[in-house]
Design brief:
The complex is a heterodimer of chains A (about 325) and B (about 290).
Chain A: H1 12-26, E1 30-34, H2 38-41, H3 46-50, E2 55-57, H4 62-74, E3 78-84, H5 85-88, H6 93-102, E4 108-112, H7 130-135, E5 141-143, H8 148-160, E6 165-169, E7 190-193, E8 198-202, H9 207-219, E9 224-228, E10 231-233, H10 237-247, E11 249-257, H11 262-273, E12 277-283, H12 293-300, H13 304-315
Parallel strand pairs in A: 1-2, 1-3, 3-4, 4-6, 5-6, 8-9, 8-11, 11-12
Antiparallel strand pairs in A: 5-10, 7-9
Helix pairs in contact in A: 1-8, 4-6, 9-13, 10-11
Chain B: H1 4-28, E1 30-31, H2 34-37, H3 40-50, E2 65-68, H4 74-84, H5 124-137, E3 144-149, H6 156-167, E4 173-179, E5 182-183, E6 186-187, H7 188-191, H8 197-203, E7 207-212, H9 216-228, E8 234-239, E9 258-259, H10 263-271
Parallel strand pairs in B: 2-3, 3-4, 4-8, 7-8
Antiparallel strand pairs in B: 1-9, 5-6
Helix pairs in contact in B: 1-4, 1-10, 3-4, 3-9, 5-6
Classes of the chains: A alpha/beta (about 325), B alpha/beta (about 290).
Chain lengths: ~325, ~290
Amino acid sequence: MLTDTPLHELEMRVVYGNTLCALAAQHPNIYVLEADLSKASGTNPVFCCSYPDRFINVGVCEANMIGVAAGLAVEGKIPFCASFTPFATRRVYDQITISVAYAKANVKIVGTAPGITAGPNGGTHMCLQDLAIMRVMPHMVVLSPADAYELRACLHWMAEYEGPVYLQLLRGQLPPIFDPSYGFAPGRAQHLRSGGDVTLVSTGYMTSFARQAAEELAAEGIAVDLWHHPSIKPLDGESLAQSARRTGRVVTVENQSVLGGLGGAVCEFLAEQCPAYVSRLGVPDRFGEVATEEYLFNKHGFGVMHIKEACRTMMRRAQCRL
Amino acid sequence: MHDDTIDLNLDQLAGEFRYIITEMICLAGSGHLGGALSLVEIIITLYWRLMRVNPDNPQWEERDRLVLSKGHAGPVLYTALAYKGFFPKSWLTTLNADGTYLPSHVDRLRTSGIDMTAGSLGQGLSAACGMAYRAKKDNLAHAVYCIIGDGESNEGQIWEAALFAGHHKLDNLIAICDYNCLQIDGFTDDVLTLEPLAAKWTAFNWHVLEMDGHDWQSIYRTLDAARQMRGKPVMVIAHTVKGKGNAVVENLPASHNIKINSPADHQKYLQGLGPACLAGTPWQDSKELPC
C-alpha cells in the first residue's frame, strides 16, 4: 500500500480501495460488491486480496448486486457496491428505489467515472443524470466529493452512517482542494473563496475548474463567493441563502445535465427561500458522446472560460434581491 | 409420516386462512386474492412445521428467514404472522387502510415478522441470496426461504440471482416457485412460457424438487428434504392452483387482483369459499392459537 504517498498524488479509485481496506479493518461488517468492474473501481487488487471473504464479484449482474447488497444490509452488513455510474444508478433505479431506499437498507452505492469523465466510453456510459435521479429518491443521501481528502472523509462518514448513500467516484488523480485535516458533514458546503459579486456553486469534478475560474476572475476585479457542495442531498441551503442574499447572482456548474442536479437543487431552494438570478452550467438536455474533455466543455459550455463568461454576464445584470 | 389428526387440523386452519384472506381483501375493496390463496398450504407448512421463528423476538438472530418476493401475496403471510402472534389478529381487518401496518405488498419497516420488503417483482430472490450468503459467511445454521411467482420468473433479475446462488452454492437457500400457471394477462404458457422450468433451474446449478402445493404430505416431505440437501441451493417447484379454494376465482386470470364494488360482490367472494368457509371467530385474538 502506498501509505507514504500524499493522498492527492493517488488516483481517486486507489483512494477508494485503500480507504475501504482501512475501514474494513475497523468495521468487520463492511463488504465490497462489484459487478465485473473491480479494477476500474479500485477495489481490485487491494480490497479483494486483503479481504477476500468480504469481497463479492457478482459478475455483470448489477440488479442482482443491488439486491444481494440489500439482503446483506438487512442482516447487519455494510455493503459498498460500485459500478460505472450509469450501471450503478439508472440501470438499477428500481432495485435501488425498492430494495434499498424504500426498505431503508444500509447500502452504499458508488458510481464511478461520472458525467463526461466516462470519456472514451462515450454516450452509452456518459451518465449525466445520476445526481438528479438519485436525489429525488426518499431516504437517499447524495454525495460528490471533489478531491482525495474529501473522498476519504466521505467514505469514513458513510461507514458510520446508518442508511442508503450514493457517492460519485471520480477515478483519476485530481488536484488537491482540501488537506488531510478535512472533516465531512452531510449538508455542509465548503466555502473556498469569499467575494461579494457573484455566488459560484459547484460540486464534484467541476470544483477545481470553478476554483480556477474564480481566481482568474479576481484578476479582472470580479469577486466570486465560491462554494463547493459535496452533499447534493441534503443541500446546505443555509450557506447558499446567505451568499445569494449578499450577491443576488448565482452561477452553478456541474459535470451533469443542467436539469435536476446541483443546479436544479439550487434553483428549487432559492426560488422558495431567497430568489436570485441563477445561471446553470453543465450539459444541456443532450446525451454525451465520445470526445475529449475540451471538446465537451466547449460544446456544452461549462469549462473554465465558460464559467468566467457566465460570471461576467451575471455582473452585467442588476442584482436580484428580495 | 402421515398423521390424520394433524392433517385435519391443518385443513381447518387452511379453511380459516382462506376465509380471512378473502374477507380482508373484500374489506379493503380490492386485492391480490388468487396468488395469496395458492400459497395457503405452503405458508402454513412453513410456519407450523418447518420454520423456526419467535414472535416475541421477531429479529431473533437464529430464526429462519422468509422473503416473500411475490410481495403482493402479503395477505396470506399476514394471516400466518397474526396466528403465530407477531401482531393482533384484529389488524387483519386493516389491509390497505390509511396508516395500516399491513400494506398490499410486504414491507419490513411496517410489519413485525416481515424479513424483507418486496413488491417490485424479481428483487426478493437477490435479497434472499444476500441473506443466505451472509449466514454462510457467519456460520449461522438458519435457512433462508424465498417464495417467487411464476409470472415473476419472467424477470431477468430472477435469473441473475439464480446464477449467483448456484455459483456460491448457497445450500441454505430454499426457493419456492408458486407455479399456479397464471399471471396477470393470462396463462404463463401463453404469455411467456417458463418450460422446461425444472431443467432451467437444474442448468443454473440448483437442486430441483417438485411438489403438489396443496397436499400437506407432499409439501412437508419436499420442503423437509430440501432443508437437508447440501452443495447447491434448492428450487422447489410448487404446482398450485391460483385462487385455490374459492370457486369464484379458482384458476381464473382475473383472480390476480379482484375489485369489490358492492355488498353483492363481497357476498359472492365469500360464498365462493363454499362449506369450508368458517365465518365468525377467526378475527378474535382470544381464540386458541393452533400452534
